[in-house]
Every structure is written in structure tokens, then in C-alpha cells.
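Teaching assistant's notes for section 4

Start the section by putting this record on the projector. Ask students to predict, before seeing the second block, whether Glucosamine-6-phosphate deaminase will look compact or extended. Collect guesses on the board.
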Amino acid sequence: MPEIIIVKDEAEAGELYARCVADLIKAKPDAVLGLATGSSPLAAYQALAKVVKEEAIDVSQVRGFALDEYLGLPLTHPESYHQTIHRTVVEPLGLDPDKVHVPGDVLDGCPIEDGAKVAGAGAAYDAAIEAAGGIDVQILGIGTDGHIGFNEPGSSLASGTRVKTLAEQTRIDNARFFDNDIDQVPMHCITQGIGTIMKARHLVLLAFGSGKAEAIAETCEGGVSAFCPASALQMHPHATIIVDEAAASRL
Ligand code: GLP
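Reveal the predicted structure now:
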């Protein structure tokens, strides 16, 4: 079962993540970090950037693989996960941008209809993760419907990186990044699969606020089921779930 840590706030959660990753990088300078977008990991990235600076940790060899990307947005779009990961992780930490990968990088705005280009991008991404030796620490947020990455309810727990259709609820949740206009939110995405995520050696899932309480209860105490993709963490040998009181309120 995952270890569950209840913290005061996002800053405290961020410090736990930062300590864990800073120690990893000191021991393994070319550590492979699994990166996530969303608001939940932001304090963790800030805390890590602070520790890296204070302790003068060399991050020049650190590698990164992001979880997911919208399909159909050009890489230059400010809400593309390519840009988001650059803005929130690569720049503040001072990582080498050439060592940080986002699943849609090779697709760059390509529409799902371009089947020839889309086909194979997922398998190639999984192969790149394997070639890097696998992910050491994967940070995760969680959707209000229990999704991880963009693996919506019903996703195979054994899935690899692939193209998916976004759930209506996720498009509603993410409309806040697109002028509150759901029509601007892409319909499709490319996401690491649950099987891909489960291969990471350590999973750290962060969730804050009462809006996540039901998803966290299902994740930790519901049965393992594709209807709550995050419940797969129950089967992971080293998963840590860090939540505040509000997100833990249904446990
Ligand atoms: C998006 C991302 C997920 C993230 C989720 C929750 O759907 N694809 O990886 O976990 O949002 O975001 P937030 O942390 O902002 O609640």
C-alpha cells in the first residue's frame, strides 16, 4: 500500500519532495525525473529549485520526462505542456533543456488526424524512457476523476504511452488555463500510460484541497480499478501520497 503523509500545506509537501530529489541527484547526478504539470507540483518544484541553489547541487546531467501533452497545440503555445514544463521546471532548476522531454515534442501541433505521424510516438517515448534507464522519481498530480497523467477512468492499468481522448470533466477542469473557454481546450492528448508510470521506481503523488478528497479516498481505499486510474498506486512497491487535511478528509 502507498505511504500516506498528511501535511499542513503545499509548501511542506514541496519540502519533502525537494529533500528526496535533492538527495537522489547528489547520489546519482544523471537522475531521471518524471515531471508533471498542473498546479499541485508547483510548490515542489519551487522548493527543489531553492535546495538546488542553496546546496549548489550540480543538475547539469539530470534528465527529465514529462507525463503528458495536449495534441494539436503547437509547442510554442503558452499552455502546451512543453512550455509549461520549461517555465515551471527547466528554467527555475536550471536543467539542460535538451535533456528534458515531453511526449508531444515530436508531434508539435500535429492534429490527431495525422495518423502516420501520431502512430508510434507513444512507443518511441516509452523506448526513450527505457533507454535512459527508467524513471527514478515520478511526481504525480491527480484529476478530480482520479486520472493520473491524462489516463482517464477506463484506461488500461497496463497501458503504455499513447494518444487518448480527454474526458469532458478534465476539459472543464482545465478550461481555466484557456480563458475559461472549454472550446479552446484540446480534445486529445498523448500521455504516459499507467503501465509506464508504474515502472518508475518511486511515485510521489501530491493532492491538495477538498476537491481532491473523493479521488484520494478512491485511490487509497477503493478497490484497484481502471475506474480510478490512480488506484494502481496500491500495487506499486514504492508509492508516497502527500496530501493536506482537506484532500485527506474522506479517508
Ligand atoms: C492535468 C494534468 C495532470 C494533473 C491534473 C491535476 O489534467 N494532465 O497530470 O495531475 O491536471 O491538475 P492540478 O494539480 O492543477 O489539480
